[in-house]
Amino acid sequence: MSARQRILSILTDGESHTTAEVASALGLSPATVRRHVRALVHQGLGIQHVPTRTYRSCALFRPLNRQSILNHLGALASTITERLHLREQVDSTNLYLLRKAKGGQCFSGTTCIAEAQHAGRGRRGRSWVATPYSNVMLSMAWWLDDRAGTLAGLSLAAGVAVARGLADYGIAGVGLKWPNDILWQQRKLGGVLVDVHRRIGMGVLAIVGVGLNGFLAEQDAARIGQDWTDLRRMTGKAINRDRLVAFLIKQLYDMFEIFQHTGFAHFRVDWEQLHVSQGQRVRLLSKEQTVVGRALGVDDNGALRIMNDDRGIQVFHSGEISMRQSNEPPC
User: Fold this and answer.
1) Most exposed among 19, 126, 151, 277, judged by the fewest C-beta atoms under 10 Å?
2) Where are the beta strands (DSSP E) in 132-231?
3) pLDDT of 287-309, one tens digit each?
4) What are the chain's domains?
């Protein structure tokens, strides 16, 4: 555990602590403690500095704990222990696993969890906004056969796994938006990003990245250009990220084990039940065209099926397409 994480562990007990107390408890100099606290405040964490150089956390959060996550994993812990990587900061969890793969150190089920990312990505090259030490940023890698259509629908199957993990934790009412958004009451809670890398003689390495908003500080929330929510606002209390991460790992692991044999078809019905736009009028936007129609669901490859106003059915793969609800009446 880094010095910054150790400081956080002390400051998040709900009590006030002087610089001298924290420094003495951790064997650090007071100057080092002040430097790390300033950095944490700059990152958006709610740490209040009161007179006489006393600090108190205004937010209820805890640094992730690897052993606690393994404890919550139960029987899966023995399988994944050596494949679980918890990092304080990375460029992105997907890229971390890709580097592991290039070094021959990435096996199916290898997972990276990070407290902070400085190059986290969303769909279509967008940056992923997340307040450090407060959210869920994880990726899992899996080797799959390099067959035509093997990976079609993987991001949708991963969305089902995430929704199940949240339900296991006790978060109800989560929905999915094609192709990879996690929503709650029409507000974005998180998303899924899939990276695919082929290696001759080894098949395809699929890396599924998941980002969930645990808590977003105001300065980070201001950078998001759409309606959003986080788990703190949804539940009214801080979440146990160790427990939630364990549930997500279990569900993603189970999803991959099934997906490698059945593809997306096994998850299709569950995905459609979670789809927030199922049966509704939507507008699909791309560089080439705009299509308005009724969302019929998806096919066995995860492609969206739309009945347009001429009652013709069109099929769309994710690519550079975005989908919105439409209030336009049928022609």
Assistant:
1) 126
2) 136-144, 174-177, 181-184, 187-199, 203-212
3) 778 889 999 999 999 999 999 88
4) 3-57 (1.10.10.10), 66-274 (3.30.930.10), 281-325 (2.30.30.100)
